[in-house]
Amino acid sequence: MSVDKDTVRRIAKLARLAVPESRLEPMAGELNGIFQWVEMLGEVNVEGVPAMTSVVAQKLKWREDKVTDGGKADELMVNAPEGTDHFFVVPKVVE
Amino acid sequence: MSDLIAMTLAEARDAIRAKKISSKELTGAFVKAIEAGRPLNAFITESGEQAMLMADAADRRIAKGSLGALEGLPLAIKDLFCTKGTRTTAASKILGNFVPPYESTVTQNLWDAGAVMLGKTNLDEFAMGSSNETSAFGPVFNPWRANNSNANLVPGGSSGGSSAAVAADLCLAATGTDTGGSIRQPAAVTGRVGLKPTYGRCSRFGIVAFASSLDQAGPMTKTVRDAAIMLGTMASVDARDSTSMDVPVPDYEKLLEGGIKGLKVGIPKEYRIDGAPAEINALWSKGAEWLKAQGAEIVEVSLPHTKYALPTYYIVAPAECSSNLARYDGVRFGHRASGVHDITDLYEKSRGEGFGAEVQRRILIGTYVLSAGYYDAYYSRAQKLRTLIKRDFDQAFEKCDVLLTPTTPGPAFAVGAKTTDPLEMYLQDVFTVTVNLAGLPGISVPAGLTETGLPLGLQLIGKAFDEATLLRAAQAIETAADFKHSPAKWWTL
To answer: ipTM of this model?
Structure first.
């Protein structure tokens, strides 16, 4: 499988990452180098092998369904690049 | 002054308990050493003033007779651990001037035990790298240089600031995180000890996430004993990390005693790779002899899927990274691009400006392998390979208690030597990455010097949650290797 410039543009869009036009071609080259290398996984017979879901045998813990934290709107806003009162300010989303 | 900073964590602890030194004296000496050590670029944020306040508080507690396990002991913290009120960067521009309003569980455990924070250490951006060269805050220089050379070498990565700080006596010990080798590889190339605990041993709460199924915090120290002391405090079950395990944390330091008579040490034959320097394989054989001489039994074992570990990792880790790093959007915290025309533009430009080249590369790989039409061919297959790799270890551990391998394929390399081809950098983790994929504990112990005078480490791999046996075996290597070397302090000249 080979990645071309258009594929990089498409993945970058999916990843919400602005990749300058001049970087698309070199990035395709770098990704191809990596994908060609991982192709070696294709030589292993994985039929009937379960995909790993948890590296250490354990059941996901349950806890009581109750509020344990919160009321920290002021703290949450401290690092906001742009905010007003308890709202994050973003460009207009709905016309 | 210089003997204060050269102490091990255990020596400093005992000196404080015996009231031979105060935490303020000790902390003051490190604050000065950190200032003098600035040419190494080991710290992103120094917190000397706060450290002196913490030391003062520790001294007052000591005077009252209350002693935590790490009372008054100054430590450096990898800048991937959130520290309340102290800027946390992950060595990325995207976090901007992020000041966490909360504390990571691991660091909270350290402060609860009385430890003092000296500052936040440099790392590869989001812990993605093996040389500390992807940091947005510049590379860290290894305190070690080759004989008769002034060339700057890398301190390993991603915990390169922590490894340099420990090796240069800028702290008693440091925290690191290890996703594919990021504690063990930097410890090895700086001649110090680095321990990656079992997945689930330490809480990941408050550690900036890279690959959640692989990330694990651990100590970087001068000695195996120090690693045992640190782990005892860092480890805990935590309601805020559902993958942290509710298993007892034993007194690792006490369990160091007892020797290794009858211990079965496996030598995985697949770790003898073509092209590895002869010095690496010679040291490995020597390590096996050291253990044998102390009563261990050496057995050959096979881990047949070893060669698939790195390519498996470079699907699984980027996939998790692309998902974890989706949170950086320029809206709630961190860097935000200016002059944008809509919300998508805001996301794309903020992320494009904020993430460095290696992080962008991994986000793209991850997005690709998780995208429609490729998921089965890549991600699903990699997760099956991971099962096979773990199975290899399960089978090997039926025949032995620990495994012995080299830590790295070579010593520290020159700054800039491996930055053009990403694959060449990835190969640094060839011996360490298997351990993360299988969730096991691994430790690197300094074991010798190359002909050019650079440190090399040996790695021991243990059974899940059996860090005690791992540490005991590591101490046996440490005793036999008798590695007493330290780098010449060229940066203070």
So the answer is: 0.96
